[in-house]
């Protein structure tokens, strides 16, 4: 409840209709203000109520900005933490902050990958030529003739051949496939070796050990493995190691570029967060200054009334008084039984907080209120130091110059 001016001790008890100026928004007037304020004071109270609502909106907006700033700080921490872990994201894939690999670096790596792939294809063709050489050597062997063409099960009267052999293969088919350039050829030397071994494995499976075909297939399989180890195994090992190293190098370079891009983005995000924090701090300082300027000085009569009412408070209410004073003007607590409160040294905002608190304690409002919005607003006044009676010197009093301290017993 706002304190009355000293010259209006005899306030009317009936509600009075207020004639608001056209510039004033239709804000509801609490019934208690209608009873204790004159029309001119009510108009000022309405304006101050609007000021408090504006201030509340500013505080809420500042809180929203603080929440957004907190999210930005969390994102910076997330990126910093992610840098310590192994990157599993594909190169160039944007993350939550929109990080992408620099276009120049991406183009350079893409070009190098293309050249590396072309070199791999040339080396693969050389390996395939070696495979063809080994195959021709096998086909020129004197015992190779049974394996040169696909088995004709009908002509050779082998009715169960396709029941026993599920995947037929022959050396002629392998050579034709090696010669093809239409995409149906072998992709790796290992595929060639697997089919050659399949030719001899099929023959040894269908023909009993000791038969001519079984012996011929066993001998040719042995010869093929010898030639393969001599001409291909070390070359394949070198090729696999080279490809593995190239892939690792490209991955490391891409990871380094991604890490650099993330670091740049994180630094920018951190700089933006710091800038917003500074702006928010200046905004909060301005809000505090604005709130302080809206509190007029308390007159000596009002201070005397406040001091007298403080002395009347029950012991269980005094701790809240101390909390209000410490919150606005931090002081060192003393281990004494009594706390001396010098009202002359307290800022106006603190004095009006104490005034409103004491007024609520001395004159508690009824539990049931017809206007719940009025209750919420009157309670919010104590939380934002922009209240107090109408600004400007009230009639019948002057700002206090000196007042005796109030002594309170600690609970």
TrEMBL record:
Q: Using the record's annotation, list all stretches that form the NET domain.
A: 288-369
Q: Where is the composition biased (Polar residues)?
A: 369-378
* One of the GO BP terms on file: chromatin remodeling
Q: Which residues form a coiled coil?
A: 52-79, 259-297
Keyword Glycoprotein recorded: no
InterPro entries per the UniProt record, alphabetical: Bromodomain, Bromodomain-like_sf, GTE_bromo, NET_dom, NET_sf
Region Disordered: what ranges? 367-411
Instruction: Give the Gene3D superfamilies listed for this entry.
Output: 1.20.1270.220, Bromodomain-like (1.20.920.10)
What Gene Ontology terms describe what this protein does at the molecular function level?
chromatin binding; histone binding; protein serine/threonine kinase activity; translation initiation factor activity
Key words of the record: Bromodomain, Coiled coil, Initiation factor, Protein biosynthesis, Transcription, Transcription regulation
Would you tell me the Gene Ontology cellular component terms? chromatin; nucleus
Q: What PANTHER family does the record tag this protein with? A: OSJNBA0053K19.4 PROTEIN
Q: State what protein this is by name.
A: Transcription initiation factor TFIID
- Organism of derivation: Klebsormidium nitens (Green alga)
């Amino acid at each position: 409840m706002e304190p009355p001016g000293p010259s209006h001790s005899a306030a009317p008890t009936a509600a009075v209709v207020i004639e608001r100026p056209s510039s004033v928004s239709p804000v509801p007037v609490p019934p208690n203000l209608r009873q204790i304020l004159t029309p001119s004071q009510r108009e000022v109270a309405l304006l101050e109520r609007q000021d408090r609502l504006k201030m509340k909106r500013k505080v809420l907006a500042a809180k929203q900005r603080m929440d957004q700033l907190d999210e930005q700080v969390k994102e910076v921490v997330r990126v910093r933490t992610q840098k310590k872990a192994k990157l599993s994201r594909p190169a160039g894939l944007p993350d939550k902050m929109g990080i992408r690999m620099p276009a120049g670096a991406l183009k350079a790596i893409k070009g190098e990958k293309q050249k590396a792939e072309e070199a791999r294809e040339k080396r693969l063709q050389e390996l395939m030529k070696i495979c063809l050489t080994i195959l021709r050597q096998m086909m020129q062997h004197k015992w190779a003739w049974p394996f040169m063409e696909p088995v004709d099960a009908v002509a050779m009267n082998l009715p169960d051949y396709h029941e026993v052999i599920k995947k037929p293969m022959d050396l002629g088919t392998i050579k034709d496939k090696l010669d093809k350039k239409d995409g149906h050829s072998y992709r790796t030397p290992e595929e060639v070796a697997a089919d050659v071994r399949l030719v001899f494995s099929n023959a040894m499976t269908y023909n009993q050990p000791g038969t001519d075909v079984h012996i011929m297939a066993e001998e040719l399989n042995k010869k093929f493995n010898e030639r393969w180890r001599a001409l291909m195994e070390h070359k394949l090992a070198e090729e696999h190691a080279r490809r593995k190293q190239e892939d690792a190098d490209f991955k490391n370079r891409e990871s380094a570029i991604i890490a650099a891009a993330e670091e740049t983005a994180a630094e920018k995000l951190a700089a933006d967060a710091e800038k917003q924090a500074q702006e928010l701090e200046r905004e909060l300082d301005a809000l505090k200054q604005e709130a302080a300027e809206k509190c007029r000085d308390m007159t000596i009569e009002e201070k005397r009334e406040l001091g007298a009412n403080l002395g009347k408070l029950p012991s269980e209410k005094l701790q809240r008084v101390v909390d209000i004073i410490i919150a606005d003007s931090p002081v060192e607590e003393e281990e004494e039984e009594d706390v001396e409160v010098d009202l002359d040294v307290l800022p106006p905002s603190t004095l009006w907080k104490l005034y409103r608190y004491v007024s609520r304690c001395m004159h508690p409002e009824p539990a049931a209120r017809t206007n719940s919005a009025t209750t919420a607003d009157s309670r919010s006044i104590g939380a934002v130091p922009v209240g107090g009676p109408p600004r400007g010197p009230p009639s019948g009093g002057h700002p206090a110059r000196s007042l005796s301290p109030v002594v309170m017993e600690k609970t």
